[in-house]
Write a structure and sequence with these properties.
Length: 327
Amino acid sequence: MRTAVSRATRAARHSLPSRRHASLSPLGFVGLGNMGGPMARNLLKAGHEVVAFDVSAANAERFVAAGGKVLESPLAVAAAAKTVVTMLPAGAHVLEVYGGSKGLLADGGAEQGSLLIDCSTCEPAVGKQVAALASRRGAAAVDAPVSGGTPAAEQATLTFMVGGPEPAFQAASLVLQLMGKKVVYCGDAGMGQAAKLCNNLVLGITMAAVCEGHALAGRLGLDQQKLADILNTSSGRCWSSDTYNPCPGVMENVPAARGYTGGFACDLMLKDLGLATSAAFTSSPKLGLPMGGLALQLYSQMSARGDGAKDFSGLYPHVSAGETKKS
């Protein structure tokens, strides 16, 4: 696969979008949901014409209202734009959008010199498969999952973790910088996905730890704001506390301040922890993830109680109420 991708990279090296080309050409976007919608709108704000597709009529209407153009399929998007960004729920959706009969890589879609940037979170193997499919058409593909959640998507402060051929990474950076504050090259195809799974493994665990810390503070009668101030200036400091605190009343403009609505759904965290666990199990030699396994159980219990659509920081009410014991 490395050889096939390398051949495609050499063939497309001189036809990838340049900075001038990117500024003049329309950009494509597939997937206008909670993350993809604001990302695509940031491309509009940067002055680009953007053509897009989404299966949701409501998402499409919001994008049109923001000044974008919606087409009838991913294939139509790839035919209209040399560079296409995708933001999709899971690996199965990615494979369909890229490899389906109306997909980006179907006849009449992406071609020699096209650049495909997948910002979804899925298995590293999916990133490698998409790269191989793209190489057969002379196109270049990178996996570029994101970190930062919906606030960062709206504010264009996302971090992108990118895997793929380095020339394609350089070309993709021109677009990604319009939607984020940091773009990191992680290596070959699939390595962006690998980095994202490792990041979200740590995120899921640290959020559970912050929830437990605040739950204990409540039991002991410690003021929650004082605990947060201490955590955020001492050895317990982490993103889950200083940027996305799960305890209501501690921080404004986070899901905990609005009933755990919006943000990053518990079921999506479950998906990512499941992918990380699967990747560890299939690694050679196999790797145990004891902390990750416990976090997976906690979010599974939260989802089973009907809160899978709530933000994953909504684990806090379950922990503070003592509802995480096995029945």
